[in-house]
Write a structure and sequence with these properties.
Shape: globular
Helix content: 25-40%
Order of helices and strands: EHEEHEHHEEHEHEEEHEEEEHEH
Bound molecules: threonylcarbamoyladenylate, magnesium ion
Structural class: alpha/beta
Oligomer: single chain
CATH architecture of the largest domain: Alpha-Beta Complex
Number of domains: 2
Strand content: 15-25%
Distance between the termini: 18 Å
CATH topology of the largest domain: DHBP synthase
Radius of gyration: 19 Å
Largest sheet: 11 strands, mixed
CATH class of the largest domain: Alpha Beta
Number of helices: 9
Strand order of the largest sheet: 1-8-2-3-7-4-6-5-9-10-11
Number of strands: 15
């Protein structure tokens, strides 16, 4: 099992492990990340192995400040404005990679672009101390539910990382929003912790959805975020034996008989629901119910990211689902 340290006392150990090519699971404001020194190809390869992640799916390079970002990629005016507004925070920008950027080609799966973000909190401090970018996908086995607590990381990847840094439950709860500017247009590659409307208010141009002209995020596979249980969406009625993931004050019919019940936000607050999403999916999965039924969740604001994750959790699985309860 990996060592577990509180974020208040983990900085030196984390820097030492990253410097020597190891893996550290770190808290960010979105989800926990599985971090390695982005310049160290062998260390980055360990990330792909630990997650069972296909090599064609590139990683986000996390940086400490804008200067470090500028040394890795070139910014157009609109990307620059978004970075000024939302960094540090849950926004990832896909940008043209600089030649000789000190990031191993494995990180960006040999693409000529690089996904960059500045995380809030421990991650940012860690990168500043290391003095180099870290590559960090979400800290979960490929295709499975992302982790928002150190305990969830320990259960999924505990024997595959050198250190887990415990920063408590993450505040945003869903991954960063990923955008790419092409020809002055703002393409949304993945909805996330910053709502599309917030981006539009700053950018002054509409957000465009659905990859066009080769603009896409290679890792956005239909099945992802999959719990062991099957997932059934937009339910008005709970069937016998199902667990229920509820939202808001009104319950689906049959909720009283649900095998287990968790509410993303009793008051119907989408920010609270995003923060609770992965933790409650993990909890309901632990109830052993064969199906998690999910009440309808509004599509606006952070609801876009929540519904995106739930649709992928409900999609037909392309990975064998292992029974972790044995
Ligand atoms: O909030 C987050 O973004 C978390 C925390 C740890 O920072 N990280 C995260 O990483 O969600 P990951 O690897 O689970 O998701 C990164 C996504 C993948 O869908 C990948 O395909 C996409 O970013 N991506 C990475 N580099 C890209 C690039 N150059 N062009 C397009 N998409 C890219
Ligand atoms: Mg992920």
């Amino acid at each position: 099992m990996a060592r577990l340290l509180d974020e208040g006392s983990a900085l030196d150990a984390a820097v030492a492990i990253l410097s020597s090519g190891g893996l550290v699971a770190i808290p960010t404001e979105t989800v926990y990340g599985l971090a390695a020194d982005a310049a160290n190809g062998a260390a980055v390869a360990r990330i792909f192995e630990a997650k069972g992640r296909p090599r064609f799916n590139p990683l986000i390079a996390h940086v400490a400040d804008r200067e470090m970002a500028d040394s890795l990629a070139s910014f157009d005016a609109l990307s620059s404005r978004l970075a000024d507004t939302f960094w540090p925070g849950p926004l990832t920008l896909v940008l043209p990679r600089r030649r000789n950027a000190p990031v191993h080609p494995l990180v960006s799966a040999e693409l000529d672009t690089l996904a960059l973000r500045i995380p809030r909190g421990f991650g940012g401090e860690l990168i500043a101390r290391l003095g180099r970018a870290i590559a960090a996908p979400s800290a979960n086995s490929s295709g499975r539910v992302s982790t928002t607590t150190a305990r969830a990381v320990q259960r999924d990847l505990g024997n595959k990382v050198d250190l887990i840094v415990d920063g408590g439950p993450t505040s945003v709860g869903v991954e960063s929003t990923i955008v790419k500017i092409a020809g002055g247009r703002l393409h949304l590659l993945r909805p996330g912790g910053i709502a599309a409307a917030e981006l539009e208010a700053v950018a002054g141009v509409p957000v465009e959805r659905g990859g066009s002209g080769g603009v896409d995020a290679p890792g956005q596979l239909a099945s992802h975020y999959a719990p062991n249980a099957a997932v059934r969406l937009d339910v008005a009625e709970v069937r016998p034996g199902e667990a229920l993931l509820a939202f808001g004050p009104l319950r689906a019919r049959g909720a009283d008989a649900a095998a287990a019940l968790r509410n993303l936000s009793p008051s119907g607050d989408l920010r609270e629901a995003a923060a609770n999403l992965f933790t409650l999916l993990h909890e309901l999965d632990g109830s052993n119910a064969p199906v998690i039924a999910v009440e309808p969740i509004p599509a606006h604001g952070l609801g876009e990211a929540i519904n995106d994750r739930l649709r992928r959790a409900a999609a037909p699985r392309h990975i064998p689902v292992v029974n972790e309860r044995a």
